[in-house]
Write a structure and sequence with these properties.
It contains 16 helices and no strands. By secondary structure, it is mainly alpha-helical.
Length: about 300
């Protein structure tokens, strides 16, 4: 896919955010409506995406090796970016803001935006979705340990329970036995799972549109630090992943998936944790919206890398 096609495809995807934007501006939907929609995405759509990706793929030893590579690479990438960002943002003398920029740099919106983007560049490829499902396991482990420590500055808030017991992990527990033992489910069950999974893309885009409608665009572009977050998150991270994977001649779908999800904008969880645990919500919100806007321009450039 060339640069113009990539830009057009992402533009089409972003058009799905228009209904959410318009409905908020017309005051049909309000800010408090975002949480229940995100809850549906987190507790319904994304678990079904995981289950659907496993039941539609046949178990092979090669695929299992790839899944293992994805998990460890996902965890390593996020840890490395935590360390890099902590070093770079050390100039900021306000701990709560500095730590939020570190968190925002390390974790990406892999579930809500990564899956739709991968569907654009690799349409109908359930293997890519499977890799993203595994990536989300590493994401939750990092977010509820290093991430929550960045937000609170207190180790007592680190929650191993939430890192391990969450919708993506529960879905994986359900899906893995079906995958390993090659269980053939009735067509009606497979179809229902597929319908629940496919809801993720339009609903995630509607929520994104709602968030855009609730912010003042000029506020998103104030301060050099948010531009630095965008550069590290959208350019440096995917380049590191790409250069690390390139010499190993791995499966093309694996490489493309890892590069794409590494180039995702800052995860919504950064803002959710900031709101819940008293972190710097302004820095979190600006990082999310700034990286999301710039990802529309940068991701087509990332996709020009030979893979």
């Amino acid at each position: 896919m060339n640069f113009l096609d990539s830009c057009f495809s992402i533009l089409v995807l972003m058009c799905l955010a228009i209904p959410g934007y318009v409905l908020v501006k017309l005051k049909v939907l309000k800010e408090e409506h975002i949480f229940p929609l995100v809850t549906v995405l987190l507790y319904v759509n994304q678990p079904f995406i995981t289950i659907n990706s496993f039941i539609t793929k046949e178990f092979t030893s090669g695929l299992m090796i790839n899944i293992t590579i994805v998990f460890f690479l996902a965890a390593l990438t996020q840890i490395v970016m935590f360390l890099v960002a902590r070093l770079i943002f050390s100039y900021d003398k306000i701990p709560s803001r500095r730590n939020m920029y570190v968190f925002a740099t390390a974790v990406g919106n892999v579930g809500f935006i990564g899956i739709p983007i991968c569907n654009i560049f690799m349409p109908g490829n359930t293997e890519a979705t499977l890799y993203i499902s595994v990536y989300l396991i590493a994401f939750n482990l990092i977010a509820w340990t290093l991430g929550i420590y960045m937000v609170t500055g207190d180790k007592k808030y680190i929650s191993l329970k939430k890192a391990v017991i969450n919708p993506p992990v529960i879905a994986l527990i359900i899906a893995l036995p079906l995958f390993f033992f090659k269980v053939k489910l009735p067509d009606i069950v497979v179809d229902c799972v597929g319908y629940m999974a496919i809801m993720n893309t339009p609903l995630a885009m509607v929520v994104l549109g709602m968030r855009f409608a609730l912010v003042r665009f000029r506020d998103m572009f104030k301060g050099a630090s948010v531009y630095l977050v965008s550069f590290l998150k959208l350019v440096v991270t995917p380049l590191i992943v790409y250069l690390v994977l390139l010499p190993f001649k791995l499966d093309k779908i694996l490489v493309m998936t890892m590069v794409i999800v590494s180039a995702m904008p800052t995860a919504n969880m950064v803002l959710m944790m900031a709101e819940k645990f008293g972190g710097d919500t302004e820095a979190a919100a600006k990082s999310i919206m700034n990286t999301t806007v710039f990802s529309i321009l940068i991701l087509p450039l990332v996709m020009l890398l030979p893979m």
